[in-house]
Design brief:
Helix content is 53%, strand content 7%. It has 3 domains: 52 residues; 123 residues, DNA polymerase, domain 1 (Orthogonal Bundle); 184 residues, Intergrase catalytic core (hpI Integrase, Chain A, Orthogonal Bundle). The relative contact order is 0.08. The strands form 3 sheets. The chain has a 3-stranded antiparallel β-sheet, covered by helices on one side. It contains 18 helices and 8 strands. Helix 5 packs antiparallel against helix 6, helix 7 crosses helix 14 and helix 8 packs parallel to helix 15. The protein is mostly helical. The model has no long low-confidence stretch (mean pLDDT 81).
Length: 396
């Protein structure tokens, strides 16, 4: 039994054949194809006569990509979950698993083939121009890792640097619409249609300018409530991995208006300081109370029993916290009910940045938003055109 040869296996998501040798997957090509069986015979012959090449420029591109993606899944993790960067790498390296690149050796991949992949993305219409540039950078990052791990010759990485990014107006790729701040009137029109929990989140986020994920994860234990201005120290945040000092955490100031909104939620979490202040369960219970209040006939005993059973299953049906996606979905549903254009929680951060910049200047917006570079703040804070119009009116 121990002397049996390893069998051909199928990777279902990409319909690829592979064989596991010495604990490592060796890809053979399209599953069930004659080429895959021929490659299997060749690989097994090498396996029986000598060691299989595990690293180095002679390995296949698909093997190199698999090794890098396995590393990315373990490296790009925050709070126990893979970050969006893992998905970007997956999209960037997807062509390496498709013919003809799946049978190509790492040493034979260069800037010409990278440019061909770039043109395919450009002409497919699937990705916008800026995202294609991001994917090209991901390919370079993977090969940079390959140099350090012995998969890639340094000269290959140098050649890949020659692939230019796509320029605005000079490529066939579509342009992604810029994220604009939501109009204050739209926010005001949406608020009455939001659950009170989500409406409180919107108001606090607009006052402090934090990210959607930061308002979703706010907890009582993360707040310093002494002094005229409270301080919110998120447990985690988007750019946490760039922090040099582990003790140099992010601080978000909360003024009197934000404090008055948060106070009722703090009182509810006195006995559970590690639970999120804003919970979808509270919104679910609020909707249930509204439905009961709107009933025109009293509940029957059987209906009361079913209601109690539904509450007992609440932990299974409803999550205990919002995330950026569910938070934005709640906003879009309310905007639809209000009859206004749908908007996102990230646009609320843009609005806060724009209002702060218009009143206190760019530097103030940079400090409040927590950006290390003012150029990043420029992305969030729209320029106040009214000032330019006023100057033009005065000077003629």
């Amino acid at each position: 039994m121990k002397n049996r040869l390893p069998k051909i296996c199928r990777r279902a998501d990409r319909n690829l054949a592979y064989v596991t040798l010495r604990g490592r997957k060796v890809y053979l090509g399209k599953y069930g194809s004659p080429e895959s069986y021929a490659e299997y015979d060749r690989v097994i012959a090498e396996y029986l006569t000598g060691p299989v090449v595990e690293t180095g420029p002679d390995c296949l591109l698909c093997e190199f990509a698999s090794a890098f993606l396995a590393r990315a899944r373990d490296y790009y993790v925050k709070n126990g979950k893979s970050t969006k960067q893992t998905e970007r790498f997956r999209a960037a390296l997807a062509p390496f698993f498709v013919a003809p690149l799946d049978r190509l050796r790492v040493r034979d991949f260069g800037v010409v083939r990278l440019r061909a992949i770039q043109r395919d993305w450009e002409n497919s219409g699937r990705y916008c121009r800026s995202y294609i540039n991001t994917l090209v950078q991901c390919v370079r990052a993977a090969f940079k890792w390959g140099v350090a791990e012995g998969y890639v010759d340094p000269s290959v990485l140098v050649g890949l640097q020659a692939a230019p990014p796509l320029k605005r107006g000079r490529s066939a790729a579509r342009e992604a619409p810029p994220v604009k701040p939501v109009a204050p009137e739209t926010v005001d029109a949406t608020l009455p249609f939001l659950p009170s929990v989500v409406a409180a989140m919107v108001r606090v986020q607009l006052l402090c300018g934090c990210r959607p994920g930061e308002i979703c994860s706010m907890r009582l234990c993360d707040l310093e409530t002494t002094g005229p201005v409270w301080v919110y120290r998120p447990e985690s945040w988007k750019t946490q991995h760039l922090t040099r000092d582990a003790d140099d955490g992010k601080r978000i100031p909360l003024g009197p208006k934000a404090q008055s909104i948060l106070t009722p939620y703090l009182l509810e979490r006195e006995n559970s300081p590690t639970e999120p202040l804003f919970s979808p369960r509270d919104a679910w219970l609020e909707r249930a109370r509204e439905r009961r209040a709107a009933r025109k006939s009293p509940l029957t005993p059987s209906q009361r029993k079913r209601d109690a059973e539904r509450r007992a299953r609440l932990d299974e049906r409803v999550r205990d916290r919002y995330d950026a996606l569910s938070y934005t979905k709640a906003i879009k549903r309310a905007a639809e009910k209000a009859g206004v254009a749908p908007w996102t929680a990230n646009q609320l951060r843009h609005l806060a940045a724009t209002q702060i910049r218009a009143k206190f200047g760019l530097e103030a917006a940079q400090v409040v938003l927590g950006h290390a570079n003012a150029d990043t703040t420029q992305i969030y804070a729209e320029r106040d055109f009214r000032k330019a119009a006023q100057i033009a009116a005065e000077i003629g």
